[in-house]
Structures are given as structure tokens and as C-alpha cells.
């Protein structure tokens, strides 16, 4: 079984000598103790996408050929979506434990849908995601933990949930991001974390294998090349991702808001196009499950909440987080997607690349150690 995104920061902490850090990835044995570790997360750089990226990314091509770095396969958590994965990275826990169980979630007891990428302080981050992060653990152990993040991320609920305890350094569009990360790593021992969204954005908007996606791949590769070249003695760079992805063709999309059968009995729609959480009217869950199972036969698995939890897909689910999962859970298979044009911004329906589901194309991620 491959390791998990949950294992990355504990392994980095073990490299730094943090007490209690368990290195399930075997990095201490293969790399040796370090006094500085950079962790770079490339949003959307799935394991199965690496060969397709290689033509635009010389460093990644060299990694695939065995000429640079050490490449291994990990898995992200489910759903394979950025908010869930970032919090799993930060806490070392699965979504059922930390509570960030999807891109959007119903706030229990209300009809409100919380979008984690625009979340600020309601609900309070420490209540919505109560687990400690590895940034906090490192700081408590006397090991500096820093995160160089786009300035708009600072102060957000998701940043707090995933990176709570880090010393934040803002990055602005005009800044030299590779230089910022390298300078931060060289300035003092400890952990430095970085994040790049360019590849994922291009996949969503233009599609995987589009010209724009390959241009983004070249920029990512240039960033990683400079980070590798800037590594000082005693430092290691760990490069990973939060999910992979796939293109969804128009004919594989259904829209809950244009199909009365699918809308019937549904009170709140959350999740995202590859994983839908349907919160139903009182007494309607069984009928909704039956209707969706018939309508999406062959393109999705449809569960009750209890069935979905019992599969273990979320990991152990804290009872405090249970109601965030829909009464009915729809997990797309193949290249299907469930749109919700009446509930979500119109640009969501215009996206080409998607992720969130449980296919290997979405959940397999790399770990590259330099």
C-alpha cells in the first residue's frame, strides 16, 4: 500500500528530529537527518499526470527517468479535493477526523453551504477543524515552522485549519516566489512550506493537456528547478501534490438543477461535481437514494450517509462531523460529473478538468525527494 499525504509532514518532522514524529515514508533511513526541510505542494500534480507533464517539464522528466530526485507514489485522502487534502497534509489526519470533508459543506442545523476557499471566520476555524497541525507541533518542539503563502490566503479559515501555528510569510504576484522560499529556508533551520496553484487552475479552466496546462507545467518545473538549485547543505526538498484530475466531456455531465427527478426531495446540495452531498427533506433520503441510483447507474455510486461512512472512505468519522456528510452521498466513477447550476457559481459548470472522486487518476499523488 502506498503512503498517504497524511504521512508527509510527520516524515518531514522526523527528518528535523522532532520528538514523537513517526516516519512512515522511510525518509530518515533514505535521506538522513536534516536541519532544514522544504515541503512544496503543487496543486493538481497527480501521479498519473507526470508522464503527460514531462514534455513541458525537463526536471520532472528527469525525475521520471531516474536521473533526479527520488520518486514514490502516495495517495491523497477522500474526497480528492484541495481543502480536504491541505488539512490532511497539515494535521496528518483523514477528513473524517479533521472535519473538512469536501470543497463545500452544509453547516449542520442550517441551509448554509460553506465554501472552504472563501471561508474566513464563520464558523470559527478552531471549532470547525479542532485538531492540532504539525506546524503547531514543530513550534512546540522548538523547531521553526514557516509557510510562504499568497498574501490573500493569510487570515483565511482554510489557512488556519491547515497551517495553524506556522509563521506566515506573504507572497505577492510580483514577488520572486522561488527566491522567497529559498531565502526563508537558508535563513534558519526548520520547516518551510510552499504552495503553487497554477497547474490546477489551468487544468480546471482549460483542461488537462491543453496548451495553457503545459505552459503552467513549464512554470512549475522552472520553480522546482530553482528550488533544487538553491538547496543548501543539510537541507531536503519534498515535493508532493493534493490530488490528480481528469477532463469531463459535456456528454458525461448531469445537472441536478435541470432534472426535476434529481432535485426532488433534496434540501441542500454540497460537495462538488465529482462528489455530491445531498441533504434531503425529512423522510426523503431513501427515495432520493433510489432515484439517483437509477438515474446515474453506471456513472456513480450512491450511498446513504451510514453506508458511505461504513466503507471507510473518509477514515474514522468524529461524531461531531457526521452531519456535514450528506444524507445521500454520490461518488462519480469514470469521467462523470454532477453539476448544480442553480446552487453554485456559473463558472463551475464551464470547467473542463475536475477531481474529488475516488479513482486513481484523482487520488494517486507523487512524492519527490531532492
TrEMBL record:
Pfam families cross-referenced by the UniProt entry: Phosphodiest
Matching InterPro entries: Alkaline_phosphatase_core_sf, Phosphodiest/P_Trfase
GO molecular function annotation: hydrolase activity
Top-level taxon of origin: Bacteria
SUPFAM superfamilies, sorted: Alkaline phosphatase-like (SSF53649)
Protein name stated in the entry: Nucleotide pyrophosphatase
Amino acid at each position: 500500500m502506498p503512503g498517504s499525504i497524511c504521512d508527509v509532514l510527520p516524515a518531514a518532522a522526523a527528518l528535523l528530529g522532532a520528538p514523537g514524529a513517526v516516519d512512515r515514508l522511510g525518509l530518515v533511513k533514505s535521506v538522513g537527518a536534516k536541519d532544514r526541510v522544504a515541503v512544496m505542494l503543487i496543486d493538481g500534480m497527480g501521479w498519473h499526470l507526470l508522464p503527460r507533464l514531462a514534455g513541458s517539464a525537463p526536471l520532472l522528466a528527469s525525475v521520471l527517468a531516474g536521473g533526479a530526485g527520488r520518486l514514490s507514489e502516495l495517495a491523497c485522502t477522500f474526497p480528492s479535493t484541495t481543502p480536504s487534502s491541505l488539512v490532511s497534509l497539515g494535521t496528518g489526519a483523514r477528513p473524517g477526523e479533521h472535519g473538512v470533508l469536501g470543497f463545500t459543506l452544509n453547516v449542520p442545523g442550517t441551509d448554509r453551504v460553506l465554501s472552504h476557499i472563501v471561508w474566513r471566520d464563520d464558523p470559527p476555524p478552531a471549532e470547525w477543524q479542532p485538531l492540532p497541525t504539525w506546524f503547531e507541533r514543530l513550534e512546540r518542539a522548538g523547531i521553526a515552522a514557516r509557510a510562504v503563502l499568497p498574501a490573500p490566503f493569510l487570515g483565511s479559515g482554510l489557512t488556519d485549519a491547515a497551517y495553524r501555528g506556522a509563521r506566515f510569510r506573504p507572497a505577492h504576484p510580483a514577488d520572486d516566489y522561488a527566491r522567497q522560499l529559498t531565502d526563508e529556508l537558508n535563513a534558519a533551520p526548520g520547516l518551510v512550506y510552499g504552495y503553487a496553484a497554477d497547474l490546477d487552475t489551468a487544468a480546471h479552466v482549460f483542461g488537462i493537456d491543453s496548451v495553457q496546462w503545459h505552459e503552467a507545467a513549464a512554470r512549475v518545473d522552472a520553480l522546482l528547478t530553482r528550488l533544487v538549485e538553491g538547496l543548501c547543505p543539510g537541507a531536503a526538498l519534498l515535493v508532493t501534490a493534493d490530488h490528480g484530475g481528469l477532463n469531463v466531456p459535456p456528454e458525461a455531465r448531469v445537472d441536478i438543477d435541470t432534472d426535476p427527478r434529481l432535485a426532488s426531495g433534496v434540501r441542500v446540495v454540497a460537495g462538488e461535481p465529482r462528489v455530491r452531498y445531498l441533504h434531503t427533506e425529512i423522510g426523503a433520503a431513501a427515495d432520493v437514494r433510489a432515484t439517483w441510483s437509477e438515474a446515474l447507474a453506471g456513472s456513480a455510486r450512491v450511498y446513504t450517509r451510514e453506508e458511505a461512512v461504513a466503507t471507510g472512505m473518509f477514515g474514522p468519522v468524529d461524531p461531531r462531523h457526521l452531519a456535514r456528510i450528506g444524507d445521500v452521498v454520490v461518488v462519480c466513477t469514470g469521467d462523470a460529473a454532477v453539476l448544480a447550476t442553480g446552487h453554485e457559481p456559473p463558472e463551475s459548470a464551464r470547467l473542463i478538468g475536475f477531481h474529488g472522486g475516488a479513482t486513481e487518476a484523482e487520488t494517486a499523488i507523487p512524492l519527490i525527494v531532492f
